[in-house]
Write a structure and sequence with these properties.
The protein is of the alpha/beta class. Helix content is 46%, strand content 12%. It contains twelve helices and seven strands. The strands form two sheets. It has a four-stranded parallel beta sheet, with helices on one face. A three-stranded antiparallel beta sheet has the order 5-7-6. It is elongated. The N and C termini lie far apart (58 Å). The relative contact order is 0.08.
Length: 305
Amino acid sequence: MANLVYKRVSTDQQSTARQNLVLAEAGIEDPVVFEEDPGTSSRLHPLQRPKFGKLLTYARPGDTVHISEMFRLVRGNQHILDVLDVLHRDRLALRIHDGAFSAMDLTARHPRTGELLSTVKFMVQNLAAAGELQRDLQRELTYDGLRAAEAKGNKGGRRPAITAAQTSDVRTAYLEGRSIAALACDHRVSRGANRTAVAGLLPDHAASEEDAPAPELPVTLDMPGKVADYLRTIELEPAERAALDQGTNVRRGQGYTLRVSAVPAVHHQLLARCQALDGAQGTPAVPAQRKARREYENRVSALTP
């Protein structure tokens, strides 16, 4: 009987160090590890994740699936129940090594009906709802904190390489004849940072601004959650990925929409990326995904090209 280990992180800035520690302390014998690519969103249904799908394909009856904690695998109530149904169908055991679910036998079934025990189902639903509430509250508090900081004049993101106090000295030195390269050596910062500090003093600056076309302004559109979930699983350009990562979740009944702010060109590119949801190369389309894609297409088509 094989021991199948599943690991996942939600963003590419996170690591599996904590999961590795928990799983190492569990003393799993001869583990076969399946690790999702960094940044695989928890909003994507577990049964649609590439590495978890490979795990289920590899598994044989009697094998055990190991995870450090439940929320590495699932996000909400229905995800848990869907996964438990598949594990029961394939006769696989589930072992959770940390968190609220670690003391429960989630695969316990009624001896006659074969259905998930009502007590297990009740506990799963309540613990999952509590976990989802905790994550939503953390997201709301983070958003409120950023808004409060912005109201005080504090901006997020990377601090400028040349501080406001140094900018005056850099501009004065530039006007006195110091080159950009020399300023970069003086302040031990990149040439680009110095060009930013003296942008208004650079030759032909005013003329280039007048000749340049007006930049596109970002437009905010609501992207159906099924479209967003699909786009997170495929390769995107940096600007497309950034637009998704900076989107805001808006609850819509059992699902959600992603409020995405991007220039029209990026919206058109994202729409083109999800053509597969209409069915491609003989693969039948999922009606709900096709409908979601067409909703997004209608919103994008209304933009000025």
